[in-house]
Amino acid sequence: MGMATIKPRDELSPVIPYPLGPPPEIMQKQLGFSRIIRMGDNENPYGASPLALEAAKNELGAVSCYPDGTYSRIYTALSGFHGLPESHFIVGNGSDEVIRLLTRAFISHGDEAVMASCTFPRYKTNVLIEGGVPVEVPLADGVHDLEGMMDRFCGRTKMVFVCNPNNPTSTIVDKEKLARFITDVPKNIMVVIDEAYVEYVTPDAMNDAKPILEKHPNVVILRTFSKIHGLAGLRIGYGMMAPEIAGELRKVKDVFNVNRAGAAAAVASLADTAFIEASADNNRIEREYVANRLAGMGFTVLPSEANFLFVLLTESALAVEASLASKGIFVKGISAPGYPNALRVALGCREENDAFLEAIRTFAAEGVV
Ligand SMILES: *Cc1c(COP(=O)(O)O)cnc(C)c1O
Q1: I need a surface site. Which of 13, 43, 48, 217 has the fewest CB within 10 A?
Q2: 167 lines ligand 1 (CB under 6 A)
Q3: Kind and range of the H or E run holding 27
Q4: Cα 149 from Cα 365, distance rounded (Å)
Q5: Nearest to 304 by CA among 322, 317, 321, 285
């Protein structure tokens, strides 16, 4: 076969495809385990709302028909849930897609986007794809350094990303500091606040979305059905924003970007507050339990407001990840600026957490603490 000589866009040369190892399901087969423990992707260990699953199943008879491209049922549901007009919402194939729509519509060549140096990697990737310049600011004690980020604003700054709680460090920014930051950011800079884990945060520790959006037309808030709603496999998320911004995203979005099953499940899940509350309550109990046990073994764990813990190691995060995987326990080894060796561990149910704690204990004894 000859070498491909078709030149890709120059912008793609620094872009790295998202690193994906063999999926846990395949590893399970290869290792011959009867079950595996998924603590690597921040999924809901309690599954999804039974009402959401029923709604998704009911769509299967209609799979030969395109979804409703106006997505009227989900927009009505979101509007009712948040108390904002439907014109403020955009649904996406996961909130990952909404990030891409934002950069597609608003980042031109040379525009700068400020973000943390240890955060969700999709911001950087999507900014690079558009020829934009990611400006990465170190975290301060595992938390977004809002002042440091503001110090990097210049005439080319177009966007700033605040992942709150931050993936992978699990921390939130102080509520008042973020409110002040939002007020101080010049109105020609878009503030993208990614709230993928908001439902797990201690009540009242975050600012409400609605008043912020009503007061600040440059703010975009991202939410997802992949985390506490347990619908990661159906791919649906959304953004809330001023109608003028939403209107631009509609120009660049695919027509049928969300599938039937995902849209129907999302509507049902929004209404199932009992499932969401139980998931959040269980997570709070397990978060405290696992964090305390890890601290007892000598590990440093950052204060988590999410459904995962960020565990600092002195060495060998990837080796620990691989060793746990060989036992059927999947966590994510992290090597990021400021955090060369850490584990991101999604909280499971009690039995899964105990299996993880048992497995990690051997490493505590070996001195990676
Ligand atoms: C998981 C996650 C998302 C989005 O996930 P989707 O499945 O694409 O909705 C967005 N932001 C952060 C910080 C996440 O952790």
Answers
A1: 13
A2: yes
A3: helix 24-31
A4: 39
A5: 285
Q: Residue 143 in contact with residue 171, Cβ under 8 Å?
A: yes
- Contact (CB, 8 A) for 76 and 68: no
Structure tokens given for 183: 């007020």
| Closest CA relative to residue 49, chosen from 259, 200, 231 | 231
pLDDT of 365: 72
CA-to-CA distance for 208 and 84, rounded, in angstroms?
A: 12
Q: Identify whether 165 is preceded by a cis peptide bond (ω within 30 of 0).
A: yes
N residues, the chain: 369
Interval between CA 45 and ligand 1 midpoint (Å) = 16
The encoded tokens of residue 197 equal 């884990």
pLDDT tens digits, 282-325: 999 999 999 999 999 999 999 999 999 999 998 889 999 999 99
Residue 125: in which H helix or E strand, if any?
helix 122-129
Q: Measured over all CA atoms, what is the biggest interatomic distance in the chain, rounded to whole angstroms? A: 60
- Pocket test of ligand 1: the residue of 97, 194, 223, 332 to mutate, having most ligand atoms within 8 Å of its CB, is 194
Read off the amino acid at residue 40.
Answer: G
The terminus-to-terminus CA distance of the chain in angstroms comes to: 50
* Ligand 1 pocket, residue 43 CB under 6 Å: no
Query: What is the β-pairing status of strands 332-336 and 339-346?
Result: antiparallel
- Cβ of 196 less than 6 Å from ligand 1: yes
Atom 2 (ligand 1): residue with closest C-alpha? 196
The string of pLDDT tens digits covering residues 317-345 is 999 999 999 999 999 999 999 999 999 99
Q: If you take atom 6 of ligand 1, which residue's CA is the nearest one?
A: 94
Q: In the structure, what pLDDT confidence band is assigned to residue 2 with cuts at 50, 70 and 90?
A: low
Ligand 1 center–CA 132 separation, angstroms: 21
CA of 249 to the centre of ligand 1 (A): 18
Q: According to the model, what pLDDT value does residue 359 have?
A: 95
